[in-house]
Fold these 2 entries.
Entry 1:
Amino acid sequence: MHPTFPDPDLNSLLKDLRQLVEIESPSSDPVAVGRVMDVVEGWAQAMGAETHALPGGTREFNFGLGDGPYVLVLTHADTVWPHGTLEKMPWKQEGDRLYGPGTYDMKAGIVGLFHAMKALRQAGQWPRGGIKVLLSPDEEIGSPGSRTQIEAAARGARVALVPEPPVSDSHNLKTGRKGTGDYTLKLRGVASHAGNRPELGASAITAAAEAVLALQKLADPAQGTTVSVGLISGGSAVNVIPDECRLSIDVRVASLTEADRIEQGVRAWKPSNDRVTCEVSGGLNRPPFKQGEGTLRLFAQAQAIARELGFEIGHESVGGGSDGNFTAAMIPTLDGLGSPGDGAHAVHEHVRLDRWPDHVRLLTRLLLEA
Ligand SMILES: [Zn+2]
């Protein structure tokens, strides 16, 4: 017989979510991200957690850690949305959909987690080994400052639960993710007057155009490898042969073999004009999150719980990375345990209020039983 847990209270979930959403927290502004972290740390302290600020800006909240491995929960306080987004994309409820920047990815996940932990407390339950929550400031930019802390925390954990959003517009959890990386190419040519002396110049933009076409050809969809130049900037004036151009490439891979092939391909590329130089930086920042046996077992457990609670969940491997990629290489990791919804990184970002409470119930049980 399972203990009975109090039902999630939607009004209270919404009140807490609104508090986090109305503090804008782009990854580029650690002070703003810190404001969200302060609120969440307050919630953790009110529940009696021991809280620490770790090197790199991650906060750690320890709830009743004992001997033996704990349950690790990975969350992030940053969003992809710049300051001022709330003016154009305000907090807005329409029927069962609650819109706003960072709602789905992943402020609702943080709020749901705290409500799940409170439900455990109210029922007098706590998992053996306790719960360690990490709240990182830089997930949306590849976790440069938090990766070491996440991997260190995974060493003491038996499982990692990640309340990132489920698969868009579904109840499906995430049991695999591609590895992600990015590269930046800095091309340097020779400037010259575009009308009087074009032959003295060496165009960095022409070289960039070659790079876009050549490097995107490294993609291999059958292997799950995608390559996309997502940013490009260069030139100084329309009538000057451009001596500078910069481009950034997004890379996703399903295997380390493919990651190596891309790494070699990007670094080996050279402009056809030998008066243009190319400097490459970047690389793979998250390893592929493979659907491991331990993760699939954890999913099966979640599925059985969901059925008992009266709903069906599935699972998928997805293209986007998360901090779960780091832990999946070490311990069973189940991702997508936040609120259902849609529109991560898009203007229609929202959570589904009709489905959210069920996923809080699911997370409550998993925290205890995983
Ligand atoms: Zn996220």
Entry 2:
Amino acid sequence: MRQGLFRGAPVKISYRADLRDTAGNPAYAATSIRKREMALDPTLKRHPKQHRRILLHEYFHFAWVRLGNPLRAAWEAFLKAEWQAGARGEAGWSAEWRKRKLTARDIDLRSRFWREYCCESFCDTAALVFGADCDQSEVTLAPGRCRARAAWFAGKFPERRFSI
Ligand SMILES: [Zn+2]
């Protein structure tokens, strides 16, 4: 666990090839919140910065489920305002491919796809904000937007601590 960022029961980490996400696509990580475990692709061991980013992203999935509704709603509102302002790009591919498929209707209805996007964007953004030593090659969001997101995290989590 990193730098006191997370607190909670341990999460078991293992390495396994040929991981798939819930849609059946190849993935670098497969996480079970309920079982408190994550499996990572062993090739990540050869790419430390990407390894750290993915690990951090997965830890933030645990943080997201414990965040509570008010904070999740605040993040949704932040992303909605960003979307309405026409912001393009994202903090990572996981959020970005979802964002590209979003429609105004998803947002109006708070569809499952929109809520998934909000979760992935939270994890990708947190990995950017708290992962100074991580790979940032997937970041396509404009620097000003990244700073605004970092300011959101600083405002909501001044102690930089997340329950997982
Ligand atoms: Zn994710």
